[in-house]
Amino acid sequence: MIKMYVDAEEVSKDWGVSKPKAYKMIQELNKKMLKDNPNLIVIAGKVNRKFYEENCYGISKEA
User: Fold this and answer.
1) Helices (H) then strands (E): counts for the chain
2) Nearest alpha carbon to residue 4 among 61, 59, 52, 39
3) pLDDT band, residue 61 (cuts 50/70/90)
4) Which domain holds residue 46?
5) What pTM does this model have?
6) Looking at the domain assignment, is residue 62 inside a domain?
7) How are beta strands 46-48 and 5-7 bridged, if at all?
8) Structural domains counted in the chain
């Protein structure tokens, strides 16, 4: 089962960066996501998987 959120561990592995850097990347993605839609719910230290994939890899999955 694929989790709905990406955590710092996964970002760290995907990008080959330290966990502190991964947390900063997640923080920036969450800020961008909230800027686009201020009504969304974010969880500190995690980012929505779909938003992560679309913004980091350019992957657009049809729902």
Assistant:
1) 3, 2
2) 52
3) low
4) 5-56
5) 0.84
6) no
7) antiparallel
8) 1
